[in-house]
Every structure is written in C-alpha cells, then in structure tokens.
Amino acid sequence: MKTQKFTFLIFIMLTSCFTTSQFVYADDVPLKRDANIGNDAVNNTSHRTRIYIPLSVSFESGELSLFFESSVGMCNVSVEDENGNVQMSEIIDTDNGTEFWLDLTGLSTGLHYVKISYGSINLIGEFYVE
Length: 130
Prior knowledge:
Layout: H1 2-21, E1 27-28, E2 31-33, E3 55-60, E4 63-68, E5 74-81, E6 86-93, E7 99-103, E8 110-118, E9 121-129
Antiparallel strand pairs: 1-3, 2-9, 3-4, 4-7, 5-6, 5-8, 8-9
C-alpha cells in the first residue's frame, strides 16, 4: 500500500513538473510557404502537399531564434509589423553555423511576421509581441 502511494506521488510530481515546464519554453513560430512570393514549383503546389521544412523558429524575451537542421547557404530573414513595415532585415550564412539568435527587443507590441527565404524556398511565420 505504501509503495502504491509513493508511486502515485512520484507520478503526480513528474506530471506537474512536465506541465509547468511547458510554460517556460519559447513560443514556436509555425512556418508555412509564402504563396505571395515567387512563381516556383514549391509555391504552386497544392495546399494539401506536405513540404518538409528543415528549420524551426521561436520567439522568446525579444529574441528570434532560428535553428536549421543543415546548411542551406545564404538566407534572408526579415521581420515586418502587421502593416507590412520592415522592422529588421538580415542576411545570414548557414555555412558558418546552423543556430542564430536575432535581437528584436525594440519591436512594438502586436502581430509581426517573419519572412525567410533561401534558394527557391520562401517561408512566412507570425508571432505576437506583448
């Protein structure tokens, strides 16, 4: 009986730790194809077609983090506000590394868009600054 209570207590503690830890991590910025850019085969495919994106983006504490699974060469990253005004634009070389952090502490509150392009790939994601 004591063992069952102890096991149950451990289970509750681990569950609560896992649940609270989910609020500590950065907000993921989901990416999708930008249908308004380019006329390439990637953008002309059906919306049901799944395309693997070897890149994850997150926004936390005024910092945009980009994590590439492998090098994609030169990559253009820009951040726009909801009115389309460019707030930041940078060209990064993924041949020199695959993890990048961009300081965005000066952004105004509201909805923002991150646009990422490399090769014939054009991606867009949205995030909210509080």
